[in-house]
Amino acid sequence: MSRADAGRMHSRRAGIRAAVVLIGLLHKSRKQNKEKRKQELLSSADVTLPERPLSPPLTAPPTMKSAEFFEMLEKMQEDYIPYPSIDEILEKGSPYPLVILPQFGGYWIEDPENLGTPTSSDSSVCEEEEENFSPSPYGYKLECKGEARAYRKHFLGKDHLNFYCTASSLGNLILSIKCEEMDGTEYLRIILRSKVKTLHERIPLAGFSKLPSIPQIAKAFCDDASGLKFNPVLYPKASQMIVAYDEHEVNNTFKFGVIYQKFRQTQEEELFGNNEESAAFRNFLNLLGDTITLQDFKGFRGGLDVSHGQTGVESVYTVFRDREIMFHVSTKLPFTEGDTQQLQRKRHIGNDIVAIIFQEENTPFVPDMIASNFLHAYIVVQVENPDADTTSYKCAQAST
């Protein structure tokens, strides 16, 4: 090493030492200021509290002593009455509820016994997308984005026009227009897309004195789209690109967990340790879908191995209203001897968002029984009269 290189190395080391010393001084100064501020707070005057009880403050007032603040928190914790534990519920004897709240909350429960008789408005599906399907008789509505599939349903492969606008306060716009007739009335079906949202509507032509221009149609459809110039889309493959854009957020594949809970099982390890499938449980799985062989399965696999058999031999799969559903059934996932947590099973079901808990006998389920950062909703199903000719099920829901 030359003398010049040695000098530069020495200067660099000296600079590093100086930086370390400077950081140490800054840290020491900051620590001293923090201690000084702490002593000031502890020596401040007491707070005069009113005689009536106050609701707990979101933050402690700056003049309140730290000791008083922590005493208040401790009293709040002492006054909190937790929900009964599952052991306390079991000690009271049957009948048990299907699901109970965790001792410290965090979930809500929907009580199916209090559901009123569903009306036609309560029991429906997405009008645009599901009009060919019968409505649900149970008072639930299938939510969907009807405008996302409107172009495929009403425009694709049919006579229509597409226009674009690049100079608007809404950003780039794509407008699709189609004339149609229903019950002797002529309509304009319109889809207007912006970066914020997509609007889909059917407007009767009777509302116009004469056939409107494209800017007039856009203004009648959206007040913010007035005074704009639209140009026709002439690209031959524009329709395929528009469909891809409209449906880029549409999800047609879903995966749900299915867990078998036996009588008086209250621990996660007990649930994931079940291997046998009773006749009632198998009948319930048959209601959910078809039992398929995973090897070389061509449908939606839901993260399961269809090549090497590492996630079991079988699973349950179905197609519901053009949506593929794969069920992660706990008893069909691989069982590992000596593993109390059964991680091979939990890594699939624990990463689902919704899980179905099947109860063959009257036993309560607690949502925090399963430790997971992803499971947010549970559907608890309990079979009634499993040996009768007509089997029925009780259901309850719990969600964060």
TrEMBL record:
Protein name according to UniProt: Rap-GAP domain-containing protein
Lineage summary: Eukaryota, Metazoa, Chordata, Craniata, Vertebrata
Species whose genome carries this gene: Bambusicola thoracicus
This protein's UniProt keywords: GTPase activation
InterPro entries: Rap/Ran-GAP_sf, Rap/Ran_GAP_dom, Rap1_Ran_GAP
Annotated spans, Disordered: 31-63
Residues of the Rap-GAP domain: 242-400
A Gene Ontology cellular-component term: cytoplasm
One of the protein's GO biological processes: regulation of small GTPase mediated signal transduction
A Pfam family matched in the record: Rap_GAP
PANTHER family named in the record: RAP GTPASE-ACTIVATING PROTEIN, RAP1 GTPASE-ACTIVATING PROTEIN 2
GO molecular function: GTPase activator activity
SUPFAM superfamilies, sorted: Rap/Ran-GAP (SSF111347)
